[in-house]
Amino acid sequence: MKTVVLDLETIPDESWTPPVDEPDKFSPIPHHIPVVISYMVNGKLEEPYVRSADANAEKVFLEVLGAALSTSDRIVTWNGRGFDMPLLNLRAMLHHADWKFWPGKRHRFGNYKQDLVHYDMMDLIADQGYVKMKLNDVCRLLRIPGKDDIDGSQVKRVWAEKGGPQRVKQYCEEDVVRTYLVYLRYVETMTNAPSDKARQLTEAVAKMAGERFGGEWAK
User: Fold this and answer.
1) What is the residue extent of each domain of the chain?
2) Is the separation of the CB atoms in 10 and 34 below 8 Å?
3) Which is nearest to 178 in space by CA: 94, 126, 122?
4) For residues 39 and 85, what is the distance between their CA atoms, to the nearest angstrom?
5) Which overall architecture, per CATH, does domain 3-218 show?
């Protein structure tokens, strides 16, 4: 089975002005610009997209990502139905990128008793989005290293700082790993898949994260 896990970090575009009484209000999805897009294929982190001065880079990356997603058996996200995939759909349309695979994926309907392609873990754990949960809270509960010094609301500020793009890149990659580990725990406890294989994958990914990121991952 080919499993692709993805996450992205964004900043608002210059046309978005938050209300005066809500300066931290989350901007509408069409106003978000991806600055980092990270993904894993079968537990291996692939080369991410990091926004640069190259105007064509995002389109090129989207088509590389689209090729990986189009041949995947399972796409795993955290709140991907509510944010990541709608935004990626819009960005593909903006850049005239080849995204023809997406409408044919069985990802929008059903009760998760079918073998759906898109596993939005927040949506899935919360019984199709009945409640909202934060990835960091779930990770802390499951003893998965949580977020340290950045969260999504701080990406715009951090991105503009010296060394900021590298910090945001690592933050995004760590969230991809966290999402995959939550998915593996779900597979182990909630499905008929072999639990020993899920635990082996968990150990391998945790070891990789410790070597790559250090910090709490290395403990």
Assistant:
1) 3-218
2) yes
3) 122
4) 13
5) 2-Layer Sandwich (3.30)
DSSP H/E element including 35: strand 32-41
* Burial class for 83, CB neighbours closer than 10 Å (0-12, 13-18, 19+): buried
- Specify burial of residue 158 (Cβ count, 10 A radius: 0-12, 13-18, 19+): buried
CA distance 140 to 146: 6
Element at 4 (helix H, strand E): strand 3-12
DSSP 217: G
147 burial via Cβ count (<10 Å: 0-12, 13-18, 19+): middle
Condensed to tens digits (0 to 9), the pLDDT of residues 39-88 reads 999 999 999 999 999 989 999 999 999 999 999 989 999 999 899 999 99
